[in-house]
Amino acid sequence: MAKALGLTPEEAYQNNIDQLARHLNGNVGLLFTNRDPKIIIQYFQNLSKIDFARAGTIAARDFTIPAGAVLSRGGEIPDEDDVPMAHSIEPELRKLGVPTSLVKGKIILQNDYAVCKQGALLDSRQTRLLKLFGVAMAEFNVTLKAYWSSASEEVEEVDTEG
């Protein structure tokens, strides 16, 4: 992305746009718009979505699958509102380390099974289990670093503190 905008003043697509290059490292993106920067900054400051955690995320809370018949939401909602997990999922649960058994077409767990503890680093096995049970505990948000304005032809760094 930085190369396309220009890494030096001589290569720059527009005046001073090469100054954005130092902000384009890591997991970043570019947004092109003709809207007022203040509106865009406010929008992204207020944007927050809950999503499924990925490996390397810190667990936001404990999650334990209760003993007994394994339900699709793993005890997250009242039993009367939940449904048994499909028997076809049982081999995958075992592959992921959950000590289940199949009894009369129902997935059974003899003891409670702790998937994760609050504050612990999640691995790919845990995140897969959380997703299977519909447990979303990662917060998605966008942090603006800087913008270039065609009106001023300057790069402005965004204050993320306030």
From TrEMBL:
Domain of life: Eukaryota
Cellular component GO terms held in the UniProt record: nucleolus; preribosome, large subunit precursor
GO molecular function: RNA binding
Example of a GO biological process term: ribosomal large subunit biogenesis
Start and end residues of each Large ribosomal subunit protein uL10-like insertion domain: 53-135
One matching Pfam family: RL10P_insert
Family recorded in the similarity comment: Belongs to the universal ribosomal protein uL10 family.
Name under which the protein is recorded: Large ribosomal subunit protein uL10-like insertion domain-containing protein
